[in-house]
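Check this:
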Amino acid sequence: MSTRPSSPTIPRHADFCLPRPGEEAPRIEVDRLPKYGPDGIAPAGFAQRVRCLECGFATYDGVLRES
């Protein structure tokens, strides 16, 4: 898990989202989440999640989701 503010980024943040005092950018977390097949049980690989720890907006395999 990474929380480096310099990269990567997400395409958009919530209107209230600001970096912490003394930081240049919001904290970003990157991790991999398991994906499952249509039956909900069989493993089907992983999705990369990139999430802002300040506002919660995230991308899953590049698709934006708002919290």
Q: What stands out?
A: The first strand starts at residue 28 and ends at 36. The mean pLDDT is 88.
